[in-house]
């Protein structure tokens, strides 16, 4: 047995950390799916010709982007129950991280929409296409493809931000590692394994995003 890094102890705690990593991946995927959809809605609303809508959405996006995720999940979990809105720690954490990153993805989408040639918008208008057909059939296929790498970066960033949710008692990967360490007073093995899991899963996410980008590339 190595007194510096106990391989036998590491093997014992590995199943618990694997379960926590699956839990963390689930939170990330659900939160990112919400962020992708909500971010697109926010980006479209921010382009609304109605000033009240575009400015309100712009303020909300900038406000959420400019405040820490930790404060936002604290508000969802500890403050909202005072006003009758109660959520479980898992729900509050998932909603919080999804809303936070939806505002970032909305800016990515907005950059993609602004990158579509003005002639495409004018052509859709000349053909009397409805707003839905304009976006779904003409604009979004051109706007989303170039911003896939940026969206993928936020997927990895969201995964690495999940330890913040431990502040509201969500037992994700890092919190599980800390719990194991507090039980045995050996932190080296669980923290090291958690770091390795974060590295491997982040690299896997990044690889999948690159594969998606390659599959959607223009001929």
TrEMBL record:
Membrane-topology descriptor: Multi-pass membrane protein
Boundaries of every ABC transmembrane type-1 domain copy: 21-209
One term under GO cellular component: ATP-binding cassette (ABC) transporter complex
Superkingdom per UniProt: Bacteria
Keyword Transport belongs to the record: yes
Keywords: Amino-acid transport, Cell membrane, Membrane, Transmembrane, Transmembrane helix, Transport
Regions that span the bilayer: 20-45, 83-104, 187-209
GO biological process: amino acid transport
SUPFAM superfamilies: MetI-like
UniProt GO molecular function: transmembrane transporter activity
Record's keyword annotation contains Membrane: yes
Stored InterPro entries: AA_ABC_transptr_permease_3TM (IPR010065), ArtM/GltK/GlnP/TcyL/YhdX-like (IPR043429), Ectoine_EhuD (IPR014341), MetI-like (IPR000515), MetI-like_sf (IPR035906)
Localization, UniProt: Cell inner membrane; Cell membrane
Family assignment from sequence similarity: Belongs to the binding-protein-dependent transport system permease family. HisMQ subfamily.
Name the record gives this protein: Ectoine/hydroxyectoine ABC transporter permease subunit EhuD
Species of origin: Paraburkholderia rhynchosiae
Gene (UniProt): yecS_7
